């Protein structure tokens, strides 16, 4: 099944993890994929693993307004259209709010929030033309609180509600806007946790499906929401979390 034949899909943070995995998924399903990230070598490595096609790797820091503007110009010059934007680039911060520096706060907000805003603003004219759609990568941390991650929770919570309002504003124009809320997933972002058996056991105790997510689990859900199979779905924040958000918070007895 090739759901994305003749579609141009832009993915930020495509050099690793869920971004790289969804690039593979979209390419397998016929898309022309634009890989966006800060490190050319990582983008090239992802590019080399894609099913053959007219793909493009563009170095850009999504937190830089001008870089995103140039990215959109380059993509439109090359393809003349954009059908799907996956705002996946993100960073994480740990610790209590009163101990965090201005730099930590600003860095998380600049990538996780400004980056999403800049990309949506830059690509929306093309998406309005193609009646395309946007997938934001929020998090279960954008649906509820976590211990020790409040800055990340603030950023991802904003993405969750940004997604809902964008869906309302652009629905009549035929542009769908949805978000994926991954739970604990094995990627570069969680590589230290993967090495820590005690942490893993705590997670597995709370995940009904009993395992961490893999980037491919998330990529499959991204591809679904971006495809015409989801043509009547907009404004959702879909947990892809092994069931972790099914709980009401009471202890696992
Ligand atoms: P990852 O670190 O492998 O991927 C994030 C990518 O974004 C990296 O390639 C990184 O280089 C890139 N990036 C960071 N800042 C950037 C910038 N300014 N400009 C361009 N690219 C930038 O981790 P991942 O888990 O695949 O993360 C993907 C998304 O999933 C993130 O938004 C993250 O917050 C979210 N998420 C992850 C988990 C998890 O458990 N791994 C859970 C929920 C949500």
TrEMBL record:
GO terms for molecular function: oxidoreductase activity. Keywords: Oxidoreductase. Residues 7-183 form the Ketoreductase domain. It comes from the Bacteria. Gene3D superfamilies: NAD(P)-binding Rossmann-like Domain (3.40.50.720). InterPro entries: KR_dom, NAD(P)-bd_dom_sf, Sc_DH/Rdtase_CS, SDR_fam. Belongs to the short-chain dehydrogenases/reductases (SDR) family. NCBIfam families: PRK07231.1, PRK12826.1-2. This is 3-oxoacyl-ACP reductase.
